Predict the structure.
Amino acid sequence: MDILVTGILLGATYALLAMGLTLQYGVARIMNLANGEWLVAGAFGAFWVFTTQQVSPFVALLFAVPGAFVLNWLIYRLLLTPLVKRAKNRGMLEVDSILATFGMSFAMVGIMLMVFGGEFFSYSYLAEPFNIFGSPFGLNRVVACAAAVLICGLLYAGLSGTRTGMAIRAVAVDPTAAGLVAIDVPKMSAFAFALGGALTAAGGVILSTYLTLDASIGVLFTMKALIIVIMGGVGDVRGAVVAALVLGLAETAVASLIDPGLTLAAAYGLFVLVLLFRPQGLFGKRST
Amino acid sequence: MSQREKLIAALCVVAFIALAFLPWFGSAYVMTLAISIAMYTVLATSWALFSGPTHYISLATGAFYGLGAYVVASGIGVLPYAVLVLIAALAGGVLAFLVGVATLRLSGVYFVIFTLGLAEFIRQVVTWVQNNFSGSRGLYVLTDIKQNHIYWELLVLLALVIWVGWGVRRSRIGFALRIVGDDEVVAAHSGIHSPAAKVTLFVISGVFAAVVGAVMAPRFTYIEPSMAFSPELSFQVVIMALLGGVHRLWGPLVGVIPFTLLWEAISASFPTQTVLLLGVSFLLIVYFIPHGVVGLLEKLSRRPHGDAGVKADAAPGAGHA
């Protein structure tokens, strides 16, 4: 029971991360290996706000999210658009974007090491018990989960209820056809990429309230988000949410039953199962 | 073999024999550099063997290297060194086979993602095993193997990887793989069983990386999981191979030598900013010399009209190297 609740509390934030990556990969067609670094950057923002200004770390959302949005938009416009133009087909873009974002991830780790140093950082926020079904859980985890659910809900409403949301979904389905019905595909791609970065930074702020992080841990979260996106099926929001909960549960189960140092191994185990049995995603249809 | 190839082969043999005499002339510092260069050349060349023709970017060199180093470290008091190197080769091959079978049937993205976290995953497992079953985290690698021996071993490996690479390029499987890299659908329609071809090449590349790890292990003296499975190694290998150019067998070599020297200078003068500079130099290469120095030279020297030079190299005629 404890595992179930802790897993779901963790899974909600993972869902947020996976949505960020889905927007970047499913819509903007950029396989972003620097995704996790934005999470760490967001977490650093929260850490800084909490320790130097003595206000709620969630205040960091106010500047981390717009900041990540603007910076990711600039990255897409200045660094990734040339690659999109250079690529002759989707495969080439994939190779180029993987290489470019891999380089960016190292550059970002370097910048963060320079600014914040290589220490692990954590702070204590709302570390008081909160009872669910009679067992105590950290209030910070519950609040984090609620925040993640709220942001996911807003995003879902935005994607399904607004004109821009519909345009984004159209680009995700088919960029060429979207262009034919007067959707500005480059603009929407840039927007989706920036939004994805902003969501990831928000996820970082939320996670920092109860996890201990350091400057070079981003790649682990990139892996987890990628695994969730693949497990859920690329571009499938419902699948991503389910996959995020599954990963949260699996990690919590492994951490509490076997060893907390094996969380990535849990993620890899799931990844292998997905690759072997459902490479098209949990709810996907076999394409060939 | 054509006349030209015989000449190149003879020159290679002479070059290797000449290089084997380096320990009698070079200072300790020169030997350290030479070992770095030899190590990265083997790693980058074996990386390019698989990732060059297929365009499947492997980010797992560090995982194989660490595995090889760990095999030697855990067995050094029990089994003779030569046997351990063979076991390391086997372990690398098995790991590459498992990864290949799981991911290479599918599109390239799955493979890249899998390799991205592989080193970290194995590091976690090794740490867990050591914490729970062996008591101590680190391992001592105490042998009477000297720096010069490591250098010679790497030199032999280098000759081997070049010979294998040359053979693969001339063989059916190398040809098949180039078609797979150009267009997977075309490859399938011309009767190539592409997953098998890809897995075979990935296994070869994994074996080399694991053996390099095994050869380098005595140099560590003390091994800890976080040292052996460093993500930076995978990254550096990719940078060097790309800098040189992956569509020629000798391309990685052209990248490794300047990069190792440059890196030596950089890490001496900016020891705290190495990660940032590594990322930035990688970005510069991806954006400005996407086909490597070799591609750049070929474009400048032979074909003034556009990028035809690069395309043509993927064609079957590029067997010589």
